[in-house]
Amino acid sequence: MEVTIDFFLLLLLLHIIGDFYLQSEKMCENKRQKGIKSKCLYLHLGIITLVFAAPAICCHTFIPWFALIILSHSVIDIGKSYFEKKYPRYTLYYFFGDQLLHWAILAICASALALPALPFQRQFLLLILGFALLFKPTNILITLVLRQLNVTPRTEKTLPSAGHLIGNIERILTFVLVLLEQYSAIGFLIAAKSIMRFRDNKQTTVSTEYVLCGTLLSIGCAFITGICIRYFDRILTLLPFIYRYIYR
């Protein structure tokens, strides 16, 4: 069971690297516009194949499950591209559905394998996974949520990518503070940013509601990620009880 969970975390980390960090926004936009005819779709599937080839080379028993991951990823992404082109207003729901299906396939593959212990500490994997989730995946999630809710972005000129940089920094700080159990410092971080925005709004026309929505989503994602990483082992002990409660 312990090895299964560790292997799932490793597969999840590889998935995040391939699905987010090795896929540009231009590639995603091309997939949305052209659907299954997009060359970027098949380029992305090739990248995913290369990413998951590493564990398949190291462990021959993983090869059949490697084939399942690639096949399922192809089917899920082709379906997502088709629906995004035909019904573009539901992009946020496609994002959640896409990721849940990918994660479920990885969990099935990890649970079906009998593997030796991995040469990684679980806490190391969790820490790397936490930081990997905080950057590009969270940026995309926040953008999709604000777009789905029709929250209007600021209109005045700003520094290029300044919003993403500020968001990344505040999520890193929040994540680290949660790991250190310094919850009061998170309140100070929110208050400090609010004061700076309040002073800025006296001289500019920045949408306070937009900034507040983005800030709360950003810090909320970092807080939840930090709690999940810090108390991961305790959360695992609750899963059997939750499972029995649902299916009793």
Low-confidence stretches: none
What is the N-to-C succession of helices and strands?
A: HHHHHHHHHHH
Average pLDDT, all residues: 84
Enumerate how many helices there are, as a single number.
Answer: 11
Description:
Helix 1 runs parallel beside helix 6 and helix 2 crosses helix 4. The protein has 248 residues and is an all-alpha fold. 79% of the residues lie in helices and 0% in strands. The model has no long low-confidence stretch (mean pLDDT 84).
What's the gist of this structure?
It is built from 11 helices and no strands. By secondary structure, the chain is an all-alpha fold.
Offer a few descriptive terms.
single chain; mainly alpha; globular; 248 residues
Topology diagram in text:
Elements (H helix, E strand, L loop, with lengths): L1 H20 L3 H10 L4 H20 L4 H24 L4 H22 L9 H13 L1 H13 L13 H18 L3 H19 L6 H23 L1 H15 L2
